[in-house]
Amino acid sequence: MSNNAELTNILVCGIGGQGVMTASEVLSMAAIQLGFDVKKTEVAGMAQRGGVVTSHVRFGEKVLSPAIPKGEADILVGFEPAEAMRWAKHLKKGGVAMVNTSRIKPPVVNVGLFEYPDNPVEEMRKNGVEVYDFDAGEIARELGEMRLVNTILMGAISEHLPFDAQVLKDIIVERFRQKKPELAELNDKAFEAGRKAAAKSAQSAA
Amino acid sequence: MNAIVKAIADSRHLLSGNEALARGVWEAGVQVATAYPGTPSTEILENLALYPDIHAQWSVNEKVSLEVAIGACVVGARSFCAMKHVGVNVASDALMSQTLAGVNGGLVIAVADDVGLSSSQNEQDTRFWGRFAHLPILEPCDSQEAYEMAIRAYELSEKFGIPVIIRMTTRVCHVKGLVTVGERQAYEHKGFLDDPTKWVMVPTHAKELLKKQGSRDVILKAYVNECDLNRVEDGSDKRIGFVTSGPAYLHVKEAFPDAPVFKMGMSYPVPIEAIRAFGETVDKLVVVEETEPLVETELKAAGVAVHGKDILPKTGELSPLILDKPIRELYGENVDDLADPDLPVFPRPPTMCVACPHLSPYYCLSKLHKKIRIAGDIGCYTLGAGHPWKALDTTTCMGASISMALGMTLGASDEDKDKPVVAVIGDSTFLHMGMQPLLDVIYNRGNVTVMLLDNRTTGMTGGQEHAGTGFDIHGNEAPRADFEKIVVALGVNPDRVRRVNPYEMPTMFKAIKEEINQNEPSVIITDQPCVLTTRFKRQNPLKVIDGCTGCANCLSTGCPAIIVTRRETETRKSGKEVEKAYVEIETTACTGCNLCVSTCGPDVIKPVSFLEVAKNVQ
What's the EC number here (chain B) (predicted)? Predict the structure, then answer.
């Protein structure tokens, strides 16, 4: 279609309140630090009301349109498996999905109006998507803080980015050092735990 | 202090369009900035409030907000006002007269259009206010332009002596990009301009000003054709030349990098002559605009042949992909429909939060819905229209719940005339535009039951302070409007004003049942804070102990912390089939509001013991 081959497109998806926007913010900061032009967009109107949230991060020499066209995402970061499945077709051929398998069922599923898919990750694989999946929620629980899911997923995806994982980790840890220093070490740990989990998922897939 | 406030000249920052616009407004030397929150415009004023040398305030509604800004401009300051697209409808009374009077100090109004409807009741195109009010419209395409155009807008406002509208859209407001900033300019305060023929809008004065508006139109139309905010970007593929503005410009550049483009930064008045000249250099012209065919229609009226909404979508956001097929067809290319359907997943509509104080009013209203009509309003509580409550019959615009409820009682059919009508409205919305409708109910001896859901914040836009919270935009203490006193002052019988804790469900239910059966207006005020604010205090979470009978009553609260673990169909002795849904409570999400406890038949929802909580934390 255009000169998009020169851009890196990362689509982060999940549910309001999960930290999707923070994730895309740190990804953007990393890209800026490496000298890229960056755009980051989200539809945030009702972001904290349990609705679908996506954030698009695009970086490269020069970014024009802020939204990633369908079929052009290099990386999909799914904070929730059904949400990853919803956005799977935004990935380009050969794109990679990193998916947290902790499920969040909305009230419309709980009251029985809709079915939650049996196995979202399998559905994605059947459709030819390369998926790495693990339970980031469980790791966060073990580390004692549910909000770590975000950092765990960033660690998990870090090996698939066109820059060194350390850059991303330093930005995350530094953000905490400035805003909530007591959580800096824990986020460092969470980042590494995510990295390990992704590597394990890669092994089991191979 | 936020980093951007201290940012020095020529430094680059990752800013949203709203943050960048705020920076530009501050640099322009603005003294007074006002707004009522509204997605996607809200963060503009939140960011302006960070700058210490600017007076920023939340006003009670957009009309008041604009009038405060106008007042500041009349006495010679540069002033600013922000709102969402539907806010202009409220502010339009002031706008349509001030456009005649003009300005003294510069006045800029930023309006954010919710193109694509992420959080609004309609998709109206703000550029029409430019035509209606004879005002220039500037359209930034990204954060850098939002910043630059804010400064430029003040120059234009003072050059032409009129308010200037900056039209933002969601994809400018909420997109972050790199912005190179400057420094605050020293603005030479103009002082009060003593001229009643300009500021006192009586027919004699207005008649003279109308003539001036006519000559101003001529000047603006000449200016826009020369203005450097509009530019031609050459391209090698001359088959189609694009005329475009805002984020649509970026989509065009991405999809068709070789095409010539006429980029409008000032899109009203439409630069017709400049576009006509551009048209001479290409085979065909296509106007790509969000959302209405405003530029297209003006060009066609001026005899310029263009394509536009005849081939492009008439509503919603555009994107490189959306442009691709219709434009390639216009090129005469064979276009395969490459539509690749998404994998089917259940919808996930936004819903109320865990422990939201609006859950219990809607639980009660949903149980009573067969016997009553329910008129809703604009805010988080509009979500009451969704599952599981389905407890709203109408929602139109800010404040309309109460006035429409009155109309619904007056216009009811014989069959319906004894059906009580309930209006549901939030605290911020009530202060924005709900007081006058209630006065109308009283004055006209109507009978409406008003549920004033006071959660002490402007919830849906992310928790802004307002005149009823007791705090100002900076979080400093401010006089707090007393809802009980207000409704009594408006004429509601004090005996018919009830304050109810929404977490006490049986009391809530009883209060509604009693008040809808009165022969005069009632107001039921809830008094628990929004769970997303620091005013909300978490309690010991709950869990479902053994003995859930699957009655699913608790699911009717709509609390997202209640999860179904198993479903089954049970056949009773009578042969009747009953759906059962067994539940558990997501302890990490539950805040222990106790609302579901009163809905549980077998009484098996209990607080998690302190020991268990302690174990989880470790």
Answer: 1.2.7.8
Give the phi and the psi of residue B435 in degrees, each rounded to 5: -70, -45
Does the pLDDT of residue B349 top 90, yes or no? no
Partnered with residue B56 across adjacent β-strands are: B33
- Whether A119 has its CB under 8 Å from any CB of chain B: the answer is no
Chain B residues with CB-CB distance to A106 below 8 A: 346, 348-349, 351, 560
Residue B336 lies in a domain: no
Helix (H, G, I), strand (E, B) or coil at A51: coil
Contact partners, residue B474, CB within 8 Å, separation at least 6: B49, B56
Closest by CA position to B39, among listed B2, B78, B79, B86 = B86
The domain that holds B259 is classified in CATH as 3.40.50.920
Contact B350 A49 (CB under 8 A): yes
Q: Per this entry, what is the length of chain A?
A: 206
pLDDT at A17: 81
pLDDT in tens, B584-617: 998 888 999 999 999 999 999 999 875 565 565 5
At residue A71 the predicted structure's pLDDT band, cuts being 50, 70 and 90, is very high
pLDDT higher than 80, residue B14? yes
Contact B306, B285 (CB under 8 A): yes
Q: Is A10 on the interface with B (CB under 8 A)?
A: no
Q: Is A71:A106 a contact under the CB 8 Å cutoff?
A: no
| pLDDT at B251 > cutoff 60 | yes
Distant-in-sequence, close-in-space partners of B305: CB < 8 Å, separation ≥ 6: B279, B284, B285
Number of Cβ atoms within 10 Å of the Cβ of A95: 21
Is the confidence at residue A206, as pLDDT, over 80?
no
B531 within some domain: no
**Minimal-distance CA residue of chain A relative to B252:** A65
Contact A15, A49 (CB under 8 A): no
Q: What element of type H or E holds A86?
A: helix A81-86
Decide the pairing of beta strands A91-100 and A130-134: parallel
Q: Residues B412-434: pLDDT tens digits? A: 999 999 999 999 999 999 999 99
- Best mutation target, A1, A65, A87, A138, to test chain B (most B CBs within 10 A): A65
Q: pTM higher than 0.90 for the full model?
A: yes
The predicted-structure confidence for B273-303, as pLDDT tens digits, reads as follows: 999 999 999 999 999 999 999 999 999 999 9
| Residues of A with Cβ-Cβ distance to B170 under 8 angstroms | 43, 45
Q: How many domains does chain B divide into?
A: 4
pLDDT tens readout for residues B497-518: 999 999 999 999 999 999 999 9
Q: Are B114 and B85 in contact (CB under 8 A)?
A: yes
Supply the range of the domain harboring residue B260: 232-330
Q: What is the mean pLDDT of residues B41-57?
A: 97
Task: DSSP letter for B404, please.
Answer: H
Does any domain span residue B335?
no
Q: How confident is the model over A143-196, as pLDDT tens digits?
A: 988 889 999 999 999 999 998 999 999 999 999 999 999 999 999 999 999 999
Residue A48 and residue B256: Cβ atoms within 8 Å?
no
Burial-class residue B504 by CB neighbours within 10 Å (0-12, 13-18, 19+).
Answer: middle
Eight-state DSSP code of residue B477 = B
Domains, chain A, in order of start with CATH, read 3-205 (3.40.920.10)
- CA-closest candidate to residue A188, choices A201, A175, A198, A199: A175
Spatial separation of the C-alpha atoms in residues B50 and B30, rounded to whole Å: 13
Alpha-carbon gap: B400 to the closest alpha carbon of chain A (Å) = 21
Q: Are B286 and B306 in contact (CB under 8 A)?
A: yes
Single-letter amino acid, residue A119: N
Q: Which of A32, A64, A115 sits opposite B14 (nearest CB)?
A: A32
Report whether pLDDT(B390) > 70.
Answer: yes
Contact with chain B for residue A110, Cβ under 8 A: yes
The residue from B211, B226, B241 where one domain ends is: B226
